[in-house]
Each structure stands twice: as structure tokens, then as C-alpha cells.
Amino acid sequence: MHHPSEQNYIQQLSIDCVIFGYHEKQLKVLVPKLDFNGDFWAVPGGFVYQNEDIDAAANRILQERTGISEIYLEQFYVFGKAARNSLEFIDKLISLNPERLTGNGLNRKEYDWFTRRFVSVGYYALVDINKVTPQKTDLDESINWYNIKELPGMIMDHNAIAAKALDALRLSLDEKLIAFNLLPETFTMKEVQELYETIFDKPFARNNFQKKILDLNVLERLDKKFTGAANKAPFLYRIKK
Amino acid sequence: MHHPSEQNYIQQLSIDCVIFGYHEKQLKVLVPKLDFNGDFWAVPGGFVYQNEDIDAAANRILQERTGISEIYLEQFYVFGKAARNSLEFIDKLISLNPERLTGNGLNRKEYDWFTRRFVSVGYYALVDINKVTPQKTDLDESINWYNIKELPGMIMDHNAIAAKALDALRLSLDEKLIAFNLLPETFTMKEVQELYETIFDKPFARNNFQKKILDLNVLERLDKKFTGAANKAPFLYRIKK
DNA sequence: GCAAAAGTGTTATTAATACACCCATGT
DNA sequence: ACATGGGTGTATTAATAACACTTTTGC
């Protein structure tokens, strides 16, 4: 693999993706940890090829880490402060990993490329967490789902990016019907409600919630789901085709 | 003035500003016409200096054209298609202006710089049209306010950018209290209503509208405005400090 | 006094929230 | 039978839209 500095990328433009998943009443974000000494977490990101739409670049980055395509994806903000560079991060990285990053590891040209100011387009993605098998790149030590409320301290402004992504998600959830991207193919009404409660961090009345969602007229009711529990079996739903 | 290609700009990144004004029941956009043969209109735009926030760059571009600072400004979308370049436009420009743009006018380096693919951050601005004295740059033949519904055919995707800006404006108008940026210091309730009716292109009931706006609790009522008309004088309002 | 337009109150409609009840299920 | 959780209907409240009336202004 060539270094980014040698690739045909647009310079000083990056993409950062906040990948949201949902599991057991928790809104989660997929965050890789870098395979270097020092604890460096960073939201999946990358650069844009000269002949590539920025949306396509975001898709490519997402596919790399999640293994799935056709992901729901939304551009939500451009981070463009002049002071926005990775100088501090890279210097720390090098000082903690001298054997790998000095001499041949990271030459002057590459160092300069990485530490320049970058304008970053923020995307958030909504995925069915069951369909994803998190993929490490060759720069990752691990990649894991973290509760949005318990994100590790990430490099640069990545924690702020994640926070802004959550804001944007909440705003668009009300207007568009995108929440279902976080759920599996079929689901019960209670699961939908719990998802909303998790995202907005507040409770909804059961009966009114059901009415509201069904009134959207986008769900079709399937068979009941018998769990073996000693109570009425809930219906399963899925998005109308 | 130096050519952009020689300036210390971020490469392949541009800013495009849709400047909204309001006058006589019309939502208007400030559009310069280029000082070249051929009818080329283009939304005010520019590039970002290495040590400049993108918001600051947008502000600078706005100030150049409007003469005022402290403009309400909102980033609304990033236009990042791979095919997004000005090749067609520039070639047409050169063919229609050979005397100025061939030879020393526009050298190879500059031509390459201009015709590369650009990722553009779209901003919209809301200004009090009375406070603005439209300023030509040395590349402009004229600069004028055009009704949003009667915009000239602009270069590249600038008409699509303007359309998207209007969409974004409508969306945020409901949530935030930004409409008043389009009005003068003091205004009557009817003027507010007409502004809303213009932006959303639909009528509002007078009494209900008044109630809705006053219930926002952001306006303070001033003296009446006597116009000499043979009817009840309306109150003037202004934003509470 | 009258026409024009502003201001306000009152009713009707609709949407959001709260409350109550019944139903299916496994032990 | 009964505890548990699901589904739905009704009442209450609040928000929105529709309707009606009064007031101010200059001629």
C-alpha cells in the first residue's frame, strides 16, 4: 500500500465517518483503535480520490470498515477551522513509536502531508449492527462498538465530530424516516420505541408512540413473534416496499 | 492582484455563497455578472487561505460583495461530485475572450488550477438589503439582485446551489429565528408576514400569524407607523435586545 | 360616514398527551 | 387463575386553523 501522500487524493480534504449502530438499548459508534503504541482512537476516515464523488469516498470508507455496502449515509457538517490539523497527534504518535515512524517509516514528505491543515467533511452512517462485521484496516489494532456516551478520548476533534453527528441525527430523525436503518429487517414496536428512547434519551408513552409510528404508514405488520415469554406475543413489522 | 494559483489557498476547495435579500415581497439573490464577453453569471465565491477558517473565508467573500460584516451565515451543503469542475465554463470563456485570456492572460498553470475538480462548501447568507451596497470585484461587469424565481442561467452547478440554499433556508426558518436578518431594524407585522409568505410561497392567515410570531416572545413593540394611508396605523417592531 | 387595513377575541378543528381497559401468552 | 407485557380505545389537553368583530386612520 502506498502512502496517502503518493496517492492521487485531493489535498487537505478528508472525510470522517461516524458510524452509528444500535444494540440492546444502546446507541453505539464504531471506532477503530490504531495499531501503535499509545492509545489512539479515531473515527473512520479517509481521503477523496481525484475522480471520486465525496459521497462515494464516504461509502468506500464505510465499506472498508463494515463490510457492507448500501449504507444509509448523510453529510452533516464541514469542519474547517484553520487550526484543524493533526500536528499534535502525529508528533505524539512518532514520539511513542520511534522505531516504526522515524527514518524510513515516515519521510519528510509524508510527515508534511499528514500534518497539514485538513478540511473534513463529516458523514454519519446508520447501519444494522447485526449485518456488520467490523473490519480492521492494516493500521488498526482493533475496532469496536462503543456506547455513544462512553466513547474513548479520540484524536483531534473526533469527539466533537461524534457529538455533532448525534445532534444532526436527532434533528433528521424527526423529519425523515431513517431510524429503521438502525434496526434489523423485522422488529417489534417495542424495539422501535426503545430505539427512539435511546437516541433522544427520554421516554415515550407506549400507546401514543405506537399510534404515531403506525400513522406514518410506512410499516407493514407481519406475524407475531413468539418468544416463549408469558405474555402476549408482539407483532413483527418491517418497512413497506 | 495575483492569480489564485499563486496564492496560498487550499487547493481544490472553494466556497460558494448564496446571498439572500428581501425587497418588495421578493426574495432576492445577489449575483455578479462576469466582466467578459459572453453572459456569465456566478454566485459569489472564492477560496480559503491556509490560515483561515472556512467560516472566515465565507465572511470575507461576503464582505467583499456586500460591504458589510456581521452577516448571518450558515453552511448548508458540500458539493463534491467528481465531475464538478469548471472546464466547460473556462473553455467557453476563453473561446469568447481570446484577446484577454490567451498568451499572457491565462497561462498553463493558471488554466490547470482553475479547471481542476473543486469541492465547494455552500453557504447562504441573510442580509438586510438596505444595508448592502453591492460591490463589484475587478472581475465583475455588474452585480445585481435577482428574484430567486428569475435567476439568470449561471455557470456550472450554481443554479442547483441556489435551489439547495433555498431548501435549507426554508428548513431552518422554522426552527431558528433567523428570518429577521432579512428585514430592516424596525418593521411591521405585515412585513414579517409577507416575508414568510414569500419564502414559503404560500399565504398565512393574518391573525394567526400575528399570534404565532408574538408568542415567540422575541419582538418588542414600538410606536405606530403613520404612513398617511387611510387606515389604522400598524405598530413597528424590533428584535428584543 | 366610509373604505381600507390593523388588531383582537371566539369558535372549530386537529394534533399531542394522558388515562383506562382488554387481550394473548406461558407457567 | 394469574402475572406479564401487548394492543387499542377514549378522554383530556394543547396547538393550529378558521371565522367574526372592533378599532384606527385619512379623506
Automatic annotation (TrEMBL), chains A, B:
<dbReference type="Pfam" id="PF00293">
    <property type="entry name" value="NUDIX"/>
</dbReference>
<dbReference type="InterPro" id="IPR054105">
    <property type="entry name" value="WHD_NrtR"/>
</dbReference>
<dbReference type="InterPro" id="IPR036390">
    <property type="entry name" value="WH_DNA-bd_sf"/>
</dbReference>
<protein>
    <submittedName>
        <fullName>NUDIX hydrolase</fullName>
    </submittedName>
</protein>
<dbReference type="InterPro" id="IPR015797">
    <property type="entry name" value="NUDIX_hydrolase-like_dom_sf"/>
</dbReference>
<dbReference type="InterPro" id="IPR000086">
    <property type="entry name" value="NUDIX_hydrolase_dom"/>
</dbReference>
<feature type="domain" description="Nudix hydrolase">
    <location>
        <begin position="10"/>
        <end position="170"/>
    </location>
</feature>
<dbReference type="GO" id="GO:0016787">
    <property type="term" value="F:hydrolase activity"/>
</dbReference>
<dbReference type="Pfam" id="PF21906">
    <property type="entry name" value="WHD_NrtR"/>
</dbReference>
<keyword id="KW-0378">Hydrolase</keyword>
<dbReference type="InterPro" id="IPR036388">
    <property type="entry name" value="WH-like_DNA-bd_sf"/>
</dbReference>
